[in-house]
Design brief:
- By secondary structure, this protein is mainly α.
- Helix 3 runs antiparallel to helix 4, helix 3 crosses helix 5 and helix 6 packs antiparallel against helix 7.
- The longest helix has 23 residues.
Length: 149
């Protein structure tokens, strides 16, 4: 039997890939626990004006994808949070309203930080630059594209 040439191996997209192993029971439990922690943080974020919600739910979906398909499906079909989670997963997109809330929440968070903590100018500038970078990244994400009818 003839072995394939080295060039043929490089051309094949499947060359060198092993089938994805199913995570063990302990790994699934750890992913599920982390997923529930992210859901809890997302709920807290829904109640507090300066803490984000959607990013924690995006992380929860990723954790549940590795541990509980049922919980993953529940989040993706949730009446309130399902659409933004699906838009992020499928398109890497954030709605204009979501961008406005995220950037507005960052601005409010910075204002509360500056008012309450009275940071030195260096710390204040560092936090402002970090938040501005995050806000810029969020604003640069594409808007969701409606699926064709």
């Amino acid at each position: 039997m003839e072995e394939p040439s080295a060039g043929a191996d490089r051309a094949s997209p499947e060359a060198g890939r092993r089938p994805a192993a199913k995570p063990g029971r302990l790994a699934r439990a750890a992913w599920a626990a982390l997923g529930w922690l992210m859901v809890a943080l997302g709920i807290i974020g829904a109640l507090l004006p300066v803490m984000p919600t959607t990013i924690f739910l995006i992380l929860a979906v990723a954790c549940f994808a590795r541990s509980s398909p049922r919980m993953e499906a529940w989040l993706l079909t949730h009446p309130r949070f399902g659409a933004p989670l699906r838009q992020w997963r499928e398109q890497g997109a954030i709605s204009r309203k979501g961008k406005a809330y995220a950037v507005g929440g960052m601005a409010l968070g910075y204002a509360l930080f500056a008012w309450g903590a009275h940071p030195s100018w260096m710390l204040g500038l560092g936090v402002a630059l970090g938040m501005a970078a995050c806000a810029g990244w969020i604003a640069s994400r594409p808007a969701p594209v409606a699926p064709p009818a």
